[in-house]
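Q: What would this complex look like in 3D?
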Amino acid sequence: MEINFQHVSFKYDNKQNYDTLNDINLTISSKDEFITIVGHTGSGKSTLVQLMNALIFPSSGNLTLFGQKIKPKRNKPLKKIRQKVGLVFQFPEYQLFEETVLKDIMFGPQNFGMSIDEAKESALNIIKELNISEEILERPPFNLSGGQKRKVAIAGILASNPEILILDEPTVGLDPRGRKELLTLLKKIHEETHKTIIIITHDMNVVANYSKRTIVLNQGNIVFDGTPKDLFNNKDCLKEFNLDLPYISKVAESLKEKGMINYQSIPLNIIELYNYINGDNHE
Amino acid sequence: MNKMAFGQFYNSNSLIHKIDSRIKIIFTILFMISIFLVPTNNFILMGSLFVFTFFIVLLTKVPLNKYLKSLKQIVFLLVFAFSFQMFFRNEGTVIFSYNLNFTWINITISIILLILYILFNKYLPLKLLILVLLAILIIYILGIPMNANVINNNPVVIRIYKEGIISGSFIILRVLTLIIFTTILTLTTKPTDLNNGIESLLSPLELLHIKTSIFAMMISIALRFIPTLFLEADKILKAQASRGVDFNEGSLREKIKQIISLLVPMFIVSFKRADELAVAMEARGYVPGEKRTKINLMKLKFSDILWLILFIIVLVGLIILRVLI
Amino acid sequence: MKIEFKNVSFKYQSDFDVIKDLSFVINTGEMTSIIGPNGSGKSTITKLIMGLLVPNSGSIYINDVLVTEENILNIRKNMGIIFQNPDNQFVGVTVKDDIAFGLENKCIERNEMFELINKYSTLVRMNDFLDSNPENLSGGQKQRVAIAGVLAMETETIIFDEATSMLDPIGVEEINKTLKMLKKEASKTIISITHNIEEILYSDNVLVIDDGQIVAQGKPIEILSNIELLNKVGLDTIESVKLINMLEENNHKEIIEELWKLTFNM
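A: Here is my prediction, written as structure tokens for the whole assembly.
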């Protein structure tokens, strides 16, 4: 497994900007996983993904990333890991700085050792993949609309050809169309390249309808690691950690309470609920 | 998100913390004048001011290492001032003299030691202490008579005079007292209170149509946003690090690019913030320089006056002493 | 406060109009939602209402008085606005100082200030945090402080300019609860600008903006049902309404009725 946490803790008195993590055990493969990480503010989500990118180091326990052991202090060069684990921060548009969109996308790949030509080729491929219009390539990134800027920033990570892509709340601040477009894009990338994608989100609809596996963090502990379906059918867990159901599941629950429909497994999207109402759901 | 340390303020809620910030600013100035009124090389007076300062330090209930931290920044200055006085005074009683022999061997050994220090000083703890020890060691090595070609036929003699050591020590004591006392002010006063105090003390300037309130607002906004910008810088730094920026390596050209990758986003974010903040302030009815009321009213307590009187007595006492002596 | 736009157009330095020949009326004491995708010109409208921008053509009337450069400062005293970014509108070093900021500008007496701060920080449930610094507050808490700061100025009108768009779901819920409470308890004119369809549910009137123009106007239920139009401008209706649309009227009358109820109660 490419990402391997064994009894990893993160607790530093002098790093007060970080939430602590306790005894994390977790393995993630670089192929075919689509994971969502949920939990309330302060639960340690950001700390967890920054550990995966070796931006910060564990205070104890064994953390292995792509075979390299990450020690609490001085570590061997970490560039290789950071290239393999692409991390898109919240509001990634704030990291853009180059004169043109193309140069900005090529910045990461060049840092990771690609030549100018290779970086350019990689950037152009990603641009096509993300439906970024070629007209804007020579324009400064600062004049683009919010949604476009974010796509360019994500392209800048993808151009380094990471094996795992992590995104910290990628849809915050986007309007419904931008949100849907971005999520569809991520799904497409996942299906075509089989790369593992990890998304930190608060949106239960994303958890239910995009991810295959979901990890719930609560006060620095992993309290659930399984399929979204199992999570949303586990009422006690949802209640204990104060997690919401997806909107449509809440609707379904109310209808069930009124005795209008019946189901064993809670519907997670409109189609499922529609089928229950029409009575043609064969599970 | 946890509390981020900003400024030196240390909240131990002591007697000194409770003194009105204007009074603290005034008596700090009075005390600084007092320190400079102490006649040169009068160790008894300077020593009493130092003990007095130390007494107030104890009253602040701030851990002593906080004071040591601020002293650490001026150790170099102190060492320099002391050495200057010690080596370059050349009158009075000689208490120590020392011949330097400039031979090839001595010089070569000294240079090798220096190069070693320059190469390895990155990895050394207590750099300054080691540098001082090294300087002593080199002087010692240069003092050893060698049977080799002497470069300079007139031997250089270092003479240390009693007066040099005395005035060096006096300067150190004076600077120490000064720094410790100003540190008391910054450790026991919140930056905002300090700002309010300065604004209040400067307010008579408004009569001369100098809008001190605008400057006070600027400082207060800066104080408000410094922690926010630090968090921001940390975020951008990490975002670029995950794009392969490694601030510890790379050629000069790459280094410049790395710094640009931090600075440009910082500028953009800060301008955006400033712009939005200006609109928000305008929307809430702020007009620069207009009359406003204040929620943070400063009220002098009786004890504040007593503190002020205490420092006036110290100052007046010193002036009288100067006149008498 | 009655706000009326008559054929207002506005452009920034660029050539194309961000706001195109816009006319609408917002009535005193009503809550109006202005909804549209990012870049549709919503936020420009708020700045025009506040007089922070001046239209290139057309005119704006507030309480039937034409807005001019002379009277805007006075008019603005009766309007408060909550912006999108929680950090960039937090002026004070503490919560108390921030709520006081607007009051200080209005030259309110110090004792009265404390009364107002207490009253409105309690109303938005931030009274336990009066001495906290902004670095230690969540986005939702900071926005609530901003709301208290505007409420304390006791203006007739409050504008929410995408006040929830940078918050997590808990923050969004906090703000929406506060908005609902305001609508119920304070007889204020409220304008809410948003791209989240859920936030239009309890408003009296909805304006849908796209490309600087009004493309639809009506009660929330009318707007929600117009799925085609919402999709066209890049917005989305609420999922339960989508489901209603999928179900056939005759077969599922009862469920559809229940779904409408749920839509407005959730």
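A: To summarize the key features: The domain at 3-228 of chain A is CATH 3.40.50.300 (Rossmann fold). Strands of chain A lie at 3-10, 21-28, 34-38, 60-65, 68-70, 85-88, 164-168, 196-200, 213-218, 221-226.
Q: Very helpful, thank you.
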